[in-house]
Amino acid sequence: MIMAAKTSSSDPPSFSVSQSGRQMTVKAVGEWTLHTLGDIDDAYREEVTGLEYDRDVYDYSCLSRLDTAGSYVLARAIR
User: Measured in Å, how far apart are the chain's first and last C-alpha atoms?
Assistant: First the structure.
């Protein structure tokens, strides 16, 4: 039997969203993984949903970990 270790995030996920004209910039920070996302999915979607933009820029330079779940959360909020 293989057991996965349960880890606690020492680098919780967070984000900031800024807008300049019609460009939205999202900066994702920390661990964006299945086990660390918690309620950030709803907060992120709420933040991005009402914005009007023609161009989106993502800054992933401060991500410490990213898995498929984190990628999905980041990608599905954009139009």
Answer: 42
Contact (CB, 8 A) for 51 and 24: yes
Task: Give pLDDT tens digits for 39-65.
Answer: 899 999 999 988 999 999 999 999 999
DSSP-derived secondary structure letter, 54? S
d(CA 52, CA 35): 31
pLDDT at 5 over 70: no
The answer to whether 36 and 67 have CB atoms below 8 angstroms apart is no
The tokens of 29 are what? 């920070």
